[in-house]
Amino acid sequence: MSRLLRESWEGFCYVASTSMAFSLMKRPTPRALVVPGTVALLLLLPWLIYWSAVIHRYGLRDDYAILREAREEPGKILRVCASQGRPLYGWMLEASAKAAGGIDGLMGLRLMGVAGLGVLAAAVFLLLRKEGWRTGSAALLAGFLTVTPSAQVIANWSICWPQAVALMLGLGAFAFARRAMGPPGEDAPIRWPLALAAVGSMATATLIYQVSGLFSAVLLAASLVVHRDVSLKDTARWMLKHLLVMGAGLALAYVVTQVLFKTGVFPPSPRITFEKHWVDKTVWALMHVFPNALALSALNEAPVGDMDGYRAMVVLTLTLLGVGVAVEGRRSGRVGVGRWLLALVTLSGAAYSVSFLAGERWPTYRTLNALTGVWAVFFAASLVNLGTMWPRHGPRMATALLTAFVAFSALLAHEQSLELFALPQGRELAVMEQGASLVVPDRKPRVFVLTARQSDSTAPFHYLDEFGSVSVDAEWVAKEMLKALVKERFPRERDVSGLYRFAAGPVAPEPRNYDILIDMRRQHVSAVSPILQKPR
């Protein structure tokens, strides 16, 4: 009962805080305070949304191995990430995991992800205003980018925090390129130092996480939709210049990676392969990837779950985009329609280009920040366009609808962080912790972990290895989690794996073959209450 009251109180505080934040965006204030006040609210917004989830004591599957490797095998995390073309990710992850120390320290990594999302939102807002967006629309779009499913992964999965840094570098690439080339329609000479800075920023983002640098396409889309006085030809030329900068940054990162491979500094991973079946990949992406981005804040619940809200959101987004294009046609004629369609198609392709070129087919949300952001820009711009059809009350109504959508998306992000990340992962950890508490070193007990299946998840539904997934579905995860927990009990022991004999599998052996059985299946995990990590 106390847990229910606590969660209800947290939910009430969250909804009240979020509602107050969004209402303050519309409340009349001294003009000089509007921008700094909005920046402060955007910095605070991710903390309001994710705080009650990320302070729980939990980890996801890779977290436990990362913690051990940072402590016991220095350099391994860097080598593994670098072999996949992400050397800076490996360096950041190894240093932060070593500083985290143990399971409780994972909370600190998650909080860095939350802080990064806040800074990202504030930066997006300022850039949107500079491009000509109204303050309210810019703030709402910037806030929405922190509550998408892709952002939720960054906030709730500790090892994903470097992706927030990569997104900001992608944002920086656009900002540098924008200053280097000037606004659309102006044939100004390119300022090469700034253009080179844009390429460097894009390459750095790529060396952290390949798809994150493509986030610059989001701001490129936002800039194009508000410059209606530019011809189709000038729009295409200006967009091409930015895409060449993005391509140069990606190419530079690829060259750096290949040099590291060829010189033997890091071995290449077999995962680094290029797609060879382009038509098949296109069909697959249209069926499995683009709908996830079109659904914006609605989660894909396949293979099981209620898909009605997901499908309805995809239809709503496509319908609103169609209406937005039609309104643009009424205002700017065929040139306006052509400009929007050119930007929408080209930038959607650019935002997914790296994943499309990669040989792997893995439609995870952590690879969709840029693509979802591009669709979100056109979603918001279409709603604003629709409001202009009724000059008297339309703009206010459009802002109210956009506010309601972002507020509802924020509430979803808050609930999904708890129900699909913190609580189910906390239950798994609590079950394993109970088993680890039975280890008596002098007896060197035989411990068998009965691994679970993804269908054993205690979450309402699960999606791949992210939302609502089961961590202990493999022997290596069970081994790493148990070792991390035993290490907490015996911190001075150099190798705690010598204190017990470990085995794991999906089928339990005869009782005479083990001393401690840790059953990770649903019926056992669901009976355990999660443990809350108190902030320090």
How would you explain this protein's 3D organization?
The protein is mainly α. Helices cover 66% and strands 3% of the residues. It has a 3-stranded parallel sheet with strand order 2-1-3, covered by helices on one side. The N terminus and C terminus are likely disordered.
Short description:
This protein has 19 helices and three strands.
What Rg is obtained from the alpha carbons, in whole angstroms? 24 Å
Are there runs of 5+ residues with pLDDT below 50, and where? 1-9, 22-26, 529-536
Number of helices: 19
Q: Estimate what percentage of residues fall within beta strands.
A: under 5%
Largest sheet: 3 strands, parallel
- The strand count comes to 3
Order of helices and strands: HHHHHHHHHHHHHHHHHEHEEH
Terminal CA distance reads: 25 Å
The strand line-up of the biggest sheet is: 2-1-3
| Backbone shape | globular
Name the quaternary structure: single chain
What is the residue-averaged pLDDT?
Answer: 90
Q: Name the structural class.
A: mainly alpha
Helix coverage percent? 55-70%
Key terms:
19 helices, 3 strands, disordered C terminus, about 525 residues, disordered N terminus, about 5% strand, mainly alpha, three-stranded parallel sheet
What is this structure's SSE topology?
Blueprint: H1 2-26, H2 31-54, H3 61-72, H4 76-83, H5 87-100, H6 106-131, H7 135-144, H8 149-156, H9 161-181, H10 192-208, H11 216-226, H12 232-262, H13 278-288, H14 290-294, H15 308-357, H16 369-387, H17 394-436, E1 446-450, H18 475-489, E2 501-505, E3 516-519, H19 522-525
Parallel strand pairs: 1-2, 1-3
